[in-house]
Amino acid sequence: MKKHNFSAGPCVLPKEVIQKASEALLDFDNGLSLIEISHRSKPFVDVMEKARRLALQLLDLEGKGYQALFLQGGASTQFVMVALNLLETEAAYLNTGTWSSNAIKEAKLYGKVHEVASSADKSFSYVPKNYTIPANCDYFHCTSNNTIFGTQLTTFPKTDIPMVCDMSSDIFSRTLDFSQFALIYAGAQKNMGPAGTTLVVVREDILNKVTRSIPSILNYNVQIAKNSMFNTPPVFAVYTSMLTMEWLQNLGGISVIEAENNKKAQLIYSEIDLNPLFTGFAAKEDRSKMNATFNLTETKLKETFETMLQKEGISGLNGHRSVGGYRASMYNALTLDSVGVLVDVMSELERKA
Amino acid sequence: MKKHNFSAGPCVLPKEVIQKASEALLDFDNGLSLIEISHRSKPFVDVMEKARRLALQLLDLEGKGYQALFLQGGASTQFVMVALNLLETEAAYLNTGTWSSNAIKEAKLYGKVHEVASSADKSFSYVPKNYTIPANCDYFHCTSNNTIFGTQLTTFPKTDIPMVCDMSSDIFSRTLDFSQFALIYAGAQKNMGPAGTTLVVVREDILNKVTRSIPSILNYNVQIAKNSMFNTPPVFAVYTSMLTMEWLQNLGGISVIEAENNKKAQLIYSEIDLNPLFTGFAAKEDRSKMNATFNLTETKLKETFETMLQKEGISGLNGHRSVGGYRASMYNALTLDSVGVLVDVMSELERKA
User: Fold this and answer.
1) How far is residue A226 CA from its own chain's centroid?
2) Residue B8 placed within a domain
3) Nearest by CB: A217 against B12, B13, B77
4) Pairing between strand B183-187 and B198-203?
């Protein structure tokens, strides 16, 4: 039976990527497995360099003063690294959900944090607008897509201070002027690859402004100087991310996948809005094109609905444990067809009820 | 042609582990790939729990107050975490090579470091003995095996302060009373699995003694409280490490592989000592059973030797870029047969020369 995997991450990846990764485990270089060779060998150094180049190319940031790194530790490690490397006295943070809140918590260990706005007052169901970013801050930090609550920033503020963005759950999903950001980071396990590596794209001119001593492994300068191989990199995760970026580039790049992502989002949100059995969680104007969060209006239909989902091979639709309800995560590799199957089940439930 | 992979890490892994990992990428849970499912799903939570249990079982530390964690960031991140979590005022470090030196460098960011002894005076070709560990230190840190220089600690000092050991390159390779250590850490990419995860085994009673604020992701307590899933773990690396530990347990555990490792070491070192064309780098009494470092006595034979190696399918024999010469890394999954092939080439070179 065909599977429709709506998991919020780790999540569906392109079939051909998984096939190639599986083959590379058996024979990558002259009979040796991808995971048995030295990371300093030419075949793997080539992989790392290609991954770094592809990331910059897809974001249209090549030759613009940026470096791409594939690190370990997830976005949660970036919450710390961003502050360690950039926060000298004060920083501005926009609070749009759990991950923003966590980023703020870690930054407070290193300096003063201005929370410029927060949507905590309405369970993070919307994105605050019309806030002011203090000009004396070292940087402004925001989270472009809020996986848990299903909101997404459609515009970004204009500011003269460096803008740092956690794009873990919508990187490579839509066209943006990425040069408005001084630093972008993203855990791989949504649109980029398997769990285990984190992309950091940083404009070099923002570094070297803090006076503290930074541990080597957490120092962007050290990682850049070592070409993203200060220590043994997470070989498999970097290789599989490279394959996924290659797949996206061969499709035609971000603009092509964005058109597909728009269709998927339109399809599911139309159903949520038209079907009286469902209600969306996020404010309409702030709805995420990656994660559609919704609830059943009649809880007695829960079991029926979930049995129908299972029968159609739909998995990963449960909302985050902190929110409940449902969440349809529609990352790049999820097909429009899969969203169609889900929408059919939702319509079928209405006919049955 | 059969391959003989002497790579220092990432390195050879058991064939059946690689086979199973490759299959799990195609279908791990009900048609879904290992890297496409939620890390919070039961199938993966079971993997993490089994990996944590196996690590404690293999080290005979189950039920003795220890916790096993599978983190990200390599031993280089542990250099920082150990100091952040344990170093309140002073710590004692034994310097036996590059990795010890790096651990010392990072610890100095957090307190006073006593270098109790160092073998830097002789290019780290031996292990210092008869040093004193100050009793007022928060902990004593050592590196059990020095991959680059090919030395290994055969005994560990008696001390009343917690002993911390970087076992990245010899974990699970020999029996020891592991309860003499309060904290053991090891990057996976030698005896345990692919690059991308780091095992930390920590006795809980040594935690909560420092007064500083520790970033969540770098806090052992936080990681323990979250069952090694504070954030998305490196799914593939943890799964493949679990398979490798399972393979070792099925073989009969560490004592069985230790006997095999002893045979491999004896074979190569006998050849190095008997063959006038080769000379060992490390002091005889401190030789590593994992990494045999040696040089050609007649450099004009270099090309001939390396051509012969290649012809026999031997790879990964180059010494570390900072040392040169040769290094035969003989981790758990390297067979005695492979060492035999290498030794045959060394003998053949002698006959030819």
Assistant:
1) 25
2) no
3) B77
4) antiparallel
At B1, the pLDDT band (50, 70, 90 cuts) reads confident
Catalytic residues of A: 99, 166, 190
- Listed by number, the residues of chain A in 76-95 with a beta carbon closer than 8 Å to a beta carbon of chain B are 76-77, 79-80
- A105, A101, A111, A175: which is closest to A142 by C-alpha? A101
- Domain that includes residue A42, residue range: 15-251
State the complex-level ipTM.
Answer: 0.98
Rounded to a whole number of angstroms, the distance from the CA of B124 to the nearest CA of chain A is 20
Q: Based on C-alpha coordinates, what's the Rg of chain B?
A: 21
Indicate whether B3 belongs to any domain. no
Active-site residue (options: B2, B129, B177, B190): B190
Residues B207 and B321 in one domain: no
User: Which tokens sit at A97?
Assistant: 């959900």
Residue B221 shares a structural domain with residue B92: yes
Instruction: Verify whether residue B166 is a known catalytic residue.
Output: yes
Q: Quick: pLDDT tens for B5-55.
A: 999 999 999 999 999 999 999 999 989 999 999 999 999 999 999 999 999
Per cent of chain A over pLDDT 90 is 97
* CA B156 to centroid of chain Cα atoms: 16
Paired residues of B246 in beta bridges:
none
Q: Do A32 and B5 touch (CB under 8 A)?
A: yes
Enumerate the residues of chain B whose CB falls inside 8 A of the CB of residue A236. Answer: 194-196, 236-237
Q: Average pLDDT in the A193-199 region?
A: 98
